[in-house]
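Hmm, how's this folded?
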Amino acid sequence: MSGAVWAAGIGAAGRASAGPAEQRVDDARLRRACAELESVFLNELLKLMRESVPESGLVSGGTGEEIFTTLLDQHIAVQAAERMERGLGAALYRHFRAAAAAAARVPERGAEG
């Protein structure tokens, strides 16, 4: 997964994007990839939390209820990931953004002497 997120911050030729417009696009793609990863994590967290609560058996919604709660958990996870300013996605973004900036400063080996 980190390879896909890493590639989101790097240009198509494997080097950092040169133009400011391309940089903004790469930044937006990296932010989106980090938010999506955070939403997957939150979705799994919500799913495990629901599984930990014992069912009473008194009222069962069956398959329809399972589908509804799955879709609800996905929606909640996406909304939470988009609105969190200090969550896992933000930490991943800061890490990969710094790594991409450091990689942009390193000259290519073939370009030297």
In short: Residues 11 and 18 are 9 Å apart (CA to CA). Confidence is low (pLDDT under 50) at residues 1-17. Residues 2-53+61-107 form one domain. The chain has four helices and no strands.
